[in-house]
Inverse folding.
């Protein structure tokens, strides 16, 4: 349920579902998102330009030229959210090469966590993670939750460029850099798999909110010869 | 028939195709992009009798040097821009913004630079020959989406122009002065109370300097450090253009068109929609001040902004 609705600036609505990060709250956000997405597609509410679901918030952007905060707020409050067709949750396996040339932060992580690299990987690989949201850059999945023993803050100074394909961890979360980008996550490997396919216009994103992801290790040779 | 195109003899600093931006894609991490100064983008199109949704070429600081091949075009430039038309007999004409010109085959268009601003726009009658990606002509260089493979233009490349019937070209011209006011109006952000009382006051009282770390993604400011008394990170959530976020170092960043769609820094404020064109045009080195307005005031200011934009668009037509 939405606990509070407020304005974010003059052209967006900030729906607050709570402060915790867990699958229950996130599933509520995703339910609202899916429902609203169809409502917009069917043009039942005009003026909405974007929906951004995250762990426990949903931001609704609108065109201030055609509508306003109070109008959209009223419409949102009057919606009776139906469960609708449940999006089928996929299970996706992601290959990762964790050689030190890709895993840039094992030294830092080993010091911070007092664990050797092998132990970190044992706790990270072959576990099922839940996709909470997609974004920041095109197609980047925010996955969780990591084992408590491998949770670590982000870098004090973010990298200006994190290479495309890098796989990172921070706090209870794991992600994949779908494009070269600035970033502060601890990088532990790289995947050769394409996560965002811009030519696949109708379905460019491989990992969507609600999906399950499992990382498995590959050798550098397999990485270099990866063929989709 | 051979293609009409502009050959790029100098690319300029950041020359890209843009339009009014992309919608309905934040949830997969694709940001809005689009013209940084929407009013000037629209005016450029109107001056050459295009729809305002047509693509324009946006340039920043130093613009491109372009040579027209295989045709004649009607073009206009908007913004606060110095440019010359170099005719094929080497005669140089000084160009003026906010009026249309004819560029003949083999003439050159030398967009020297923007003056006390950052962005300028070039439109041609009939439009450029681009394909839409997700319903927009805008280039998103982060995800390489849009014309020219989603990249900014480089020397030697071509910008194709749609072949069109030779329109009867009317002279179009307006008197327009870009607003040069350094007071930026904001609505308090969802994390305003994360900051100390002293910092809340300073945010609205002190000047902030626009630094060199400013691009289409965002504008980094420097000034009184904003002290966070609650938490310098929030659980990542959606962002919009205009958000003023404050990372741990206490210096605010205004998010602009190519911003990341999700972020975890507290939001102290959001620039009102009416001031977004003006913010984007502030060059590094400018001192700005923030002023708080209410939601209702912001909505009225946007109405004024829109009716003023329409007033100029109507004056052209």
């Amino acid at each position: 349920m939405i606990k509070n609705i407020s304005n974010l600036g003059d052209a967006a609505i900030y729906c607050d579902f709570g402060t915790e990060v867990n699958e229950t709250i996130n599933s509520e956000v995703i339910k609202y998102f899916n429902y609203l997405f169809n409502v917009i597609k069917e043009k039942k509410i005009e003026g909405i330009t974007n929906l951004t679901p995250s762990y426990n918030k949903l931001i609704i952007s609108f065109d201030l030229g055609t509508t306003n905060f109070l109008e959209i707020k009223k419409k949102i409050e009057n919606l009776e959210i139906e469960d609708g067709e449940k999006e089928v949750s996929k299970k996706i396996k992601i290959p990762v090469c964790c050689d030190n040339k890709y895993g840039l932060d094992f030294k830092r992580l080993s010091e911070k966590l007092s664990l050797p690299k092998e132990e970190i990987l044992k706790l990270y690989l072959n576990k099922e993670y839940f996709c909470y949201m997609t974004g920041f850059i095109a197609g980047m999945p925010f996955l969780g939750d990591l084992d408590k023993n491998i949770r670590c803050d982000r870098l004090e100074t973010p990298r200006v460029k994190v290479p495309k394909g890098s796989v990172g961890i921070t706090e209870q979360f794991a992600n994949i850099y779908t494009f070269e980008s600035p970033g502060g996550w601890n990088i532990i490997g790289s995947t050769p798999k394409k996560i965002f396919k811009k030519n696949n216009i109708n379905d460019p994103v491989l990992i969507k909110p609600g999906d399950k992801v499992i990382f498995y290790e590959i050798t550098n040779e397999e990485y270099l010869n990866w063929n989709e | 028939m051979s293609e009409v195109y502009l050959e790029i003899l100098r690319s300029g600093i950041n020359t890209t195709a843009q339009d009014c931006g992309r919608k309905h894609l934040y949830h997969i991490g694709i940001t809005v992009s689009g013209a940084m100064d929407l009013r000037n983008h629209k005016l450029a199109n109107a001056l050459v009798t295009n729809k305002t949704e047509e693509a324009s070429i946006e340039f920043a600081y130093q613009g491109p040097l372009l040579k027209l091949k295989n045709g004649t075009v009607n073009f206009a430039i908007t913004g606060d821009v110095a440019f010359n038309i170099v005719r094929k007999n080497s005669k140089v004409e000084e160009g003026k913004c906010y009026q249309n010109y004819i560029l003949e085959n083999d003439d050159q268009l030398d967009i020297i630079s923007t003056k006390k601003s950052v962005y300028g726009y070039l439109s041609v009658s009939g439009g450029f020959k681009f394909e839409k990606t997700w319903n927009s002509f805008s280039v998103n260089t982060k995800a390489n989406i849009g014309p020219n493979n989603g990249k900014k233009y480089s020397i030697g490349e071509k910008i194709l122009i749609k072949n069109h019937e030779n329109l009867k070209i009317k002279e179009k011209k307006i008197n327009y002065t870009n607003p040069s006011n350094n007071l930026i109006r904001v609505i308090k952000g969802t994390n305003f109370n994360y900051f100390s009382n002293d910092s809340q006051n300073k945010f609205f009282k002190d000047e902030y300097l626009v630094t060199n770390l400013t691009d289409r993604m965002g504008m980094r400011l420097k000034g009184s450090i904003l002290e966070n008394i609650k938490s310098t990170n929030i659980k990542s959530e959606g962002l919009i253009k205009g958000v003023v976020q404050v990372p741990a170092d206490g210096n605010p960043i205004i998010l602009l068109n190519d911003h990341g769609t999700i972020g975890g820094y507290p939001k102290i404020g959001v620039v009102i929609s009416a001031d977004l064109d003006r913010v984007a045009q502030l060059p590094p080195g400018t001192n700005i001040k923030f002023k708080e307005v209410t939601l209702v005031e912001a909505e009225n200011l946007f109405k004024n902004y829109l009716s003023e934009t329409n007033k100029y668009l109507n004056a052209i037509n």
